[in-house]
């Protein structure tokens, strides 16, 4: 094992729970074969890695995560597979890819249910906590820094660009009026206080888009995804496959274009694969999941 990360508490490790999405489609699409070496770029709680290990004999997995809690949880969940899994604490964008070693690569993007359900990680506007939102708690920028230090114009721009929030300017103005804001709930209340009633009591909470935008900015999610998709194909063997699950249109657009424009890849999914009715009924998180797969050609 190759973990060099902050040590999380045991309690944190045991709280990790996450139902892997599009599991059957992902494993079938990757055509896992005995003795193959696979990269799980987002191991999370280890759900997809376990399915890779169970799909064929003697599979090896390199399992990356930028969150120490996730790695600890995955190690626990995959006890018994120590010989077959190499855990790596890294951002997938800064991982040093070696040429032509993986038979398949998977990434299941974004945050896990654990992140959303653990108040102190600060991802949820429903749970009171400091505005944090870092997946890697080793980095310094937090959501509180962005909310309290950035200009009104910059805030409006990120809410519009990464949250696709129509009321971005109005919300940015209210945030600046109410600063400093320290907690998720204070921020959610500030947002709710400046939107029309129709919006406040609509289908989704009025803070949803702003929270998405902040998460993307704090973790630089779109940039690291682009970098990863530029570097990863080179580390596939010829015929090796890359399968990416994304959860919102900004990510899916990057995945679609990067796979299509890579000279090393042939896209196998003309349209993204989405969850079947049975999965949707069991796991609401699968509602927005899109899976795209490509194969290395040379
Ligand atoms: C949706 S969860 C993955 C769940 C996993 N497939 C499972 O079955 O349990 C996403 C995980 O990817 C990690 N992650 C997100 N972006 C990352 C990045 N740029 N580099 C490394 N890990 C990342 C998060 O910390 C989180 O643990």
Automatic annotation (TrEMBL):
Its EC number(s): 2.1.1.199
Catalytic activity, reaction form:
cytidine(1402) in 16S rRNA + S-adenosyl-L-methionine = N(4)-methylcytidine(1402) in 16S rRNA + S-adenosyl-L-homocysteine + H(+)
Q: What spans are recorded as compositionally biased (Polar residues)?
A: 276-286
Main location per UniProt?
cytoplasm
Question: Which region ranges are annotated with the description Disordered?
Answer: 276-298
Q: Where is it localised? A: Cytoplasm
Query: InterPro entries from the xrefs?
Result: RsmH, SAM-dep_MeTrfase_MraW_recog, SAM-dependent_MTases_sf
Keywords on this record?
Cytoplasm, Methyltransferase, rRNA processing, S-adenosyl-L-methionine, Transferase
Task: List membrane-spanning regions.
Answer: none
Tell me the SUPFAM superfamilies matching this sequence. Answer: Putative methyltransferase TM0872, insert domain (SSF81799), S-adenosyl-L-methionine-dependent methyltransferases (SSF53335)
- Its domain of life reads Bacteria
Q: What does this protein do?
A: Specifically methylates the N4 position of cytidine in position 1402 (C1402) of 16S rRNA.
Q: Which PANTHER family match?
A: 12S RRNA N4-METHYLCYTIDINE METHYLTRANSFERASE, S-ADENOSYL-METHYLTRANSFERASE MRAW
The name on file for this protein is Ribosomal RNA small subunit methyltransferase H
Q: Which organism is it from?
A: Calothrix parietina FACHB-288
Q: What is the lineage of its organism?
A: Bacteria, Bacillati, Cyanobacteriota, Cyanophyceae, Nostocales
């Amino acid at each position: 094992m190759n973990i060099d990360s902050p040590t999380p508490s045991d309690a944190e490790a045991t709280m990790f729970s996450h139902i892997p999405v599009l599991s059957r489609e992902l494993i079938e699409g990757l055509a896992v074969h005995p003795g193959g070496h696979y990269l799980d770029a987002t191991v999370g709680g280890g759900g997809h890695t376990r399915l890779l290990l169970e799909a064929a004999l003697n599979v090896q997995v390199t399992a990356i995560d930028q969150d120490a809690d996730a790695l600890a949880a995955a190690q626990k969940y995959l006890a018994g597979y120590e010989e077959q899994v190499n855990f790596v604490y890294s951002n997938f964008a800064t991982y040093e890819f070696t040429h032509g070693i993986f038979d398949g690569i998977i990434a299941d993007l974004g945050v896990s249910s654990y992140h959303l359900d653990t108040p102190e990680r600060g991802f949820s506007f429903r749970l009171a906590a400091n505005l944090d939102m870092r997946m890697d708690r080793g980095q310094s920028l937090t959501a509180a820094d962005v909310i309290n230090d950035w200009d009104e114009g910059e805030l409006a721009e990120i809410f519009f660009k990464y949250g696709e929030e129509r009321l971005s300017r109005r919300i940015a103005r209210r945030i600046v009026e109410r600063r400093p804001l320290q907690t998720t709930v204070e921020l959610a209340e500030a947002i709710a206080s400046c939107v029309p009633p129709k919006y406040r009591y609509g289908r989704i909470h009025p803070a949803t888009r702003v929270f998405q935008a902040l998460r993307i900015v704090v973790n630089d999610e779109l940039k690291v995804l682009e970098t990863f998709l530029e570097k990863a194909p080179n580390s596939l063997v010829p015929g090796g496959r890359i399968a990416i699950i994304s959860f919102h249109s900004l990510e899916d657009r990057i995945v679609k274009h990067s796979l299509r424009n890579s000279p090393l890849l042939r896209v196998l999914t003309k349209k993204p694969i989405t969850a079947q009715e049975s999965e949707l009924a069991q796991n609401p998180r699968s509602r927005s999941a899109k899976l795209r797969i490509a194969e290395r050609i040379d």
